Amino acid sequence: MTKIAVIGVGRWGVHLLRNFLAHPQAEVVAIVDPHPERLAVVKQQFNLAENVLLTTQWSDLQKVPGLTAVAIATPATTHYALIKDALTQGYHVLAEKPLTLDPTECLELCQLAEQQRLILMVDHTYLFHPAVEEGQTVVQSGKLGELRYGYATRTHLGPVRQDVDALWDLAIHDIAIFNNWLGKVPVSVQATGTVWLQSTVNNQQSTGLADLVWVTLTYPDGFKAYIHLCWLNNDKQRRLAVVGSLGTLIFDEMSPSSQLTLLHGEFERQGNLFLPVNQSREVLELKTGEPLQRVCDRFITSVFQNTPTSISSGWVGTELVKILSALTTSLQQGGQSVSLQ
């Protein structure tokens, strides 16, 4: 039985708590949140036992006997200090994404986890989504033929963040999926953005938090992925696709009946004409299960076996933060290409 503490029970942390409470090999022994009212809510909501420590102070965890792991769902700006302290004290760590906001800090935490022989895992939930798992199999099987390009759209009307822009809020999901499906990481990136809502002093929009961001990822073989991100768009979309010479694979999270679809089709050349042939639509069957439940289960299994997961390790999280940091540089430079090599 893994004794675990949940740090932060806000919008996402409460779901981590729910899953760990339901896990047969996990025992939630403590919950930390700076807001006492949140602690009171989860105590009633989940009918927590009296022996579960509810505290506003991180330092109180040192009093919990047998604690072996922590799940951290606090603002990203707090991650570095909390994760470093947790690893130093000998706790395995599951951290909400992003791992931190600084690639150098991420690297330090990964090295510390290895030195301490502890699990450092990042909650990149989409990597455990059945559609993403099946999509990786399809792309890497060669069914799409020669891969040509990818595109994704992640839009909605709010929530509007006041600590990070739409890039840091939204892009990490689609970048993680593209990297996972392709089995590669970008060699260069570009980003441009527009600010409408939160301009800084004297209306200098270029330094405000971008509401709309366009991202281009370029991979080692020349494959490019284009991502549209906006929290100021009533047209809510969660859609990602990879296009190949033999078809297109589409992950549409908003579709209740066909989240992963393979559109078969190619061109047959007749003289100067290119005629579409072999066209069909295949809705792929997916496994069942909540992605976050799979994240929590993988973490508990990794802790029990003391074996890191390659899917969403601290190193994977570090690579994603490195990409986001490079995109921020490009955004600040008006869309200049930034190398990751």
From TrEMBL:
Protein origin, superkingdom: Bacteria
Pfam families: GFO_IDH_MocA (PF01408), GFO_IDH_MocA_C3 (PF22725)
Residue intervals of the Gfo/Idh/MocA-like oxidoreductase N-terminal domain: 3-124
Xref: InterPro entries: Gfo/Idh/MocA-like_OxRdtase_N, Gfo/Idh/MocA_Oxidoreductases, GFO_IDH_MocA-like_dom, NAD(P)-bd_dom_sf
GFO/IDH/MocA-like oxidoreductase domain boundaries: 137-249
Signal sequence extent: none
The name this protein goes by in its record: Gfo/Idh/MocA family oxidoreductase
Native species: Nostoc parmelioides FACHB-3921
Organism ancestry: Bacteria, Bacillati, Cyanobacteriota, Cyanophyceae, Nostocales
